[in-house]
């Protein structure tokens, strides 16, 4: 326990106390439930409102009772005791640990309703677009029962639709859409263009994924350089097209074509008459086709990988990177645009924000996940969040087998196939968790060779995946999936309709197989958690080889002698202890990377807050005009004829233009600094101090430069009742912007990501 032992003990005691208290409240709520059940809807809703005093839920028992009655009436679900407990813990701002299948969707909606009743606006952060829509619709009757409003914000919604959605009390949205709206709102030049309304609470589903695993993933807003071809815009428009509706892929998978609807949609979104007109056919249409080809036919990790910020083609027959290969220029650029890489045709990053920075903007963060306990350190260190463990509603019936450890990857792969074949022969459904898409494809091919029908999830389509995963518990199924694919979807035994539930239960329920240990046990447990939901029988089993990345990375140079049997299997306590040790080492490394990288990000996060405040002031007042008038009184006097509102708007536009430009330059510069500072790290200076010194100095200069250049522009740009004519001076804002998530996450992915992550510390 070490020097801080007393601290942990005290913390443990505290959460136990909380637990007892909330259990007592939940108990007393059940008698209140009986009383409320006799009342009509309006009276029940009123009882919930009456339970609030001074912005807090004062009478928690009545509040829970009202929610229970409403849930029963609107959704046909009476909350389990453990669900009500979880709601209380969420309302105090904890991250709750609740196993998969315990009903977190209802818990989240109940807690969000509680926050909303106290006048707080809640962003309910979902894993993907599909779940945002699904959960908002599913939970809508419950929320509306109390006269509150609920909506979802998803990728396909327009700015106007989002603006309306954000005004609701509870908004379901995936984290990247929330972040993209923050970034876009930081580019507006008039307050009326704001899309996102302020929220008080972020309630995060699968909290450890968002807050820990993907914490350092940057969300990026990029824009075309004024005057250049809008490659980014076309990419963006094409990226939203939907298979089978807007385009169709030929059966052989080699060609793709727009449907009539798709063509019409592209024309509408690009604001052109016809893609096939003489002026467009050789230009716009070519680009659209390239972008569509890149989107629909070229799949990351199968046809190419992204490494070191560059596209690398994969030689399909060998499954290796083909070093010197490039696609024809246009196609290369189209795939680069799709991946958010630097595109030969130009385009620049306007702004970026990491998920961690995004989440820290909320006054209150709370969350739910099946694997919170293992993330306790990170949640406390980075967000000051506490973890509450909620009991299972029914006891766990899953059997977790000991790891099967092999000397080589080859032996391991063979054993995995044999095991799946053997389980499949009994009819028991199998869900296999792999580390990446390529591994999934290889395994599926090997299984098909053995005559087994396999469903593969490859993170292409959330709704389709949800449908496949929902069936993963059916008799005779074999489903192969990467870590995140299909998360958040219930796997019911006997298929989505539970037709063969009893038969599958007799066969032992769902068997989950991991093809190697993840770099943290938390990720292993996420996978295990897919079996044995709500007291179902189930099995989990991991395969490991001494050549796995986790073992090599965590084991360092430690040599290990072991005696495998003729199949390569090693049965030795010493070896399984060693594997566990290796995983603890990689866990420690990840935490260290996270802490280090966050140190780099934190300063920029603080600086962004200053930029935000400055922007808000410029947007909401006449300060821009006042500052420019003061610095260039003569020019201001010349503009006396221009109506005041136009003058103020023009000044605002000029100052925001230079502020945003300076910020984008700053981000780019600091990125370069981070990369070059690596050299000093080798010289054993303290790179982080150096980085900070430069960041502070540059930021000061940024502020000055933005003002000076604004004065320059103010003097020379023509200003009339229509505002400032920036574009005449080549100072136009990007005419198109697009967003993406940098998927080369230092903390995620398979392969040697741990190594890459460490390499990334000083970049
Ligand atoms: P989780 O997100 O925790 O994995 P879900 O929210 O998807 O779990 O819920 C799992 C299943 O349990 C769903 O089918 C849901 O309808 C059901 N469920 C949840 N709570 C209750 C309840 N109180 N009574 C009956 N069924 C419930």
TrEMBL record:
Domain (Helicase ATP-binding) ranges: 85-243
UniProt-recorded name of the protein: Protein translocase subunit SecA
Similarity remark: Belongs to the SecA family.
Record-listed ATP binding positions: 83, 101-105, 490
Ranges of residues in domain Helicase C-terminal: 415-576
Domain SecA family profile intervals: 4-576
Subunit and interaction comment: Monomer and homodimer. Part of the essential Sec protein translocation apparatus which comprises SecA, SecYEG and auxiliary proteins SecDF. Other proteins may also be involved.
Function recorded in the entry: Part of the Sec protein translocase complex. Interacts with the SecYEG preprotein conducting channel. Has a central role in coupling the hydrolysis of ATP to the transfer of proteins into and across the cell membrane, serving as an ATP-driven molecular motor driving the stepwise translocation of polypeptide chains across the membrane.
GO BP, sorted A to Z: intracellular protein transmembrane transport; protein targeting
One GO MF term: ATP binding
EC number: 7.4.2.8
